[in-house]
Amino acid sequence: MAITCKNNKLIAWVAEVQAMVKPDTVVWCDGTKDEYDALLKLMVDSGAATPLEKRPNSYLFRSHPSDVARVEDRTYIASREQVEAGPTNNWIDPEALKKTMRDLYDGCMKGRTMYVIPFSMGPIGSPISKIGVEITESPYVVVNMHIMTRVGDKVIETLGEDGEFIPCLHSVGAPLQPGDKDVAWPCAPIEKKYIAHFPEENLIWSFGSGYGGNALLGKKCLALRIASTMARREGWMAEHMLILRLTNPQGKRFHIAAAFPSACGKTNLAMLQPSIPGWKCECIGDDIAWMKIRPDGRLHAINPESGFFGVAPGTSYNSNPMAMESIKENAIFTNCVLTDDGDIWWEDMNAPCDHGIDWKGQEWTPDKKDADGKPVKGAHPNARFTAPARQCPVICPDWEDPNGVPIDIFVFGGRRSKLVPLVSQAFDWDHGVYMGATAASEATAAALDVKGSIRRDPMAMLPFCGYNIGDYWQHWFNMGDKLGTKAPKIFYANWFRKSPDGKWLWPGFGENARVLKWMCERVEGRVDAVETPVGYVPKASDLDTNGLDISDSEIEELLRIDAAGWKSEVPEIETYLRSSGDRLPDRMVQQLEGLKNRLGI
To answer: Is the pLDDT at 444 greater than 90, yes or no?
Structure first.
């Protein structure tokens, strides 16, 4: 055993799991480069991984076609009472679920090695960090956890004899009998997949999937679903937010945490390259923020992850050059195209690929069609890259500061082609919580669950809040009460507004720094704003558009408040809020009534 563990609770849990899953051998992971390299060699030798000639120390994996994304309908919150899970989660009785899963776990690692992965979410020893231990038989999971978390000896040392940890049990659910030949990507059928969270016990059990957030249990399972429940109990915040530092030409720093639903440019904003002279942006995190009130009375944030687990398709030197630079070496790619010259490729990479091997291992060309004559994508739409955060050229020097960075600004957003202005500021904290709770995007034609044109995603936490959403909103109100005058200012951004004839009005990408600049100037009290029924919006003259090819009329349309349109949306907002049931906070109802009054309803 590489690590001498003195934590009796951990030793007993590992022994209990070992007796249940019955592996051939047990390995305690030490987090070293030698371990990482040995596991990748093991997977290359077995045919599970392909080394990439064009990218040093980088590898391509292909998953089973049934195991390509988070499985929302097989993800459960197993609280003792259903009301604690609330209306936005799949609830299941914890004892019944444990019985089902214990039967599945029985002997599930036969013929395999059981890996014990001690990991820290956040800098080891930080007062904001938490320790987890994941047990898995998947070497793919181990190497990804090496990148995404801090693994190894120092974690065990920090845990000590009686330190608390979050147990995370994972299995791909594919035991090997003597003489069986393994497959490149073992997993279980969809009906046997379970991603289960037991919030009262700070416990995670996952079975049947080897992919992404289903298997890398430090990610959404621990960092959001379980952490959000811990944060509520302990008085802090675990949020689906990027963190960035913006420095103005005078050297003043602003720290911004922003929550956007998928397809709204979150990772692009996290690695922003400002287009305005003298302003500098540095990335602290692209996905998750853990925030605690520190002795100065302010909310300080860490990025609990140590890597990026990003969606590959659509990432390019045009959309996110810093992400592209971050994955030039020491990266893991999953379900991308393998090019003939030993590199990876995906759709909208803005690079040529005339031939390759697609994510299913088939010959692929750009003109390939399926049996119905539809184009065949080379990379899966949820193809991924995993890369160390330290490789990002704009990573903030303080991204691993154990004390975190003090948050000045919260930003919520969504994808709306009309109605919602480019940017608005909340009147106060409670109004900002209402803004975040009602964040929405227009449903795309590809969405399978479209029930209306608008999809609400409160604080971008819809799939990730580990308890009743009404209680979650109340927790936000409570945190505002604790922070008082030291609470961050709250804004709402919408980069996606279109003109009446369907043209994008705002250029986006690096130009979004102009909107962040206005937010910073508002925090400093340097610019006034126009009060509207939905918040404060910029005066057109205060939005820095120097050098932009954008007309006065386009700026006017970007900032215009359509009162009649907002009036027509109020009934849908009210129905949505009321759907949270009797846990809807009174203060949220007051915010809705305030909007109605301002609109003259």
So the answer is: no
**How confident is the model over 447-467, as pLDDT tens digits?**
344 445 889 999 999 999 999
Residue type (1 letter), 312: A
Is 353 assigned a catalytic role?
Answer: no
Measure the CA–CA gap between 320 and 510, rounded to whole angstroms: 9
- Residue that has been written with the tokens 């004899």 in this structure: 161
**Chosen CATH of 239-306+399-599 out of 3.20.20.30, 3.30.300.30, 3.80.30.20, 3.90.228.20:** 3.90.228.20
**Residue range 465-490: mean pLDDT, rounded:** 98
Q: Considering Cα of 74, then 76, then 82, then 84, what sign does the dihedral take? A: negative
Residue ranges covered by each domain of the chain: 8-49+70-234, 239-306+399-599
User: What secondary structure letter does DSSP report for 504?
Assistant: B
- Annotated catalytic residue: which of 168, 221, 264, 283? 264
Closest listed residue to residue 281, CA positions, set 8, 556, 513, 447: 513
User: Do 305 and 285 touch, CB atoms closer than 8 A?
Assistant: yes
Question: What is the model's pTM?
Answer: 0.96
What does the pLDDT look like over 133-163, one tens digit per residue?
999 999 999 999 999 999 999 999 999 999 9
> Following DSSP, what letter does each residue of 216-238 receive, concatenated?
-TIIIIIIIIIHHHHHHHHT-EE
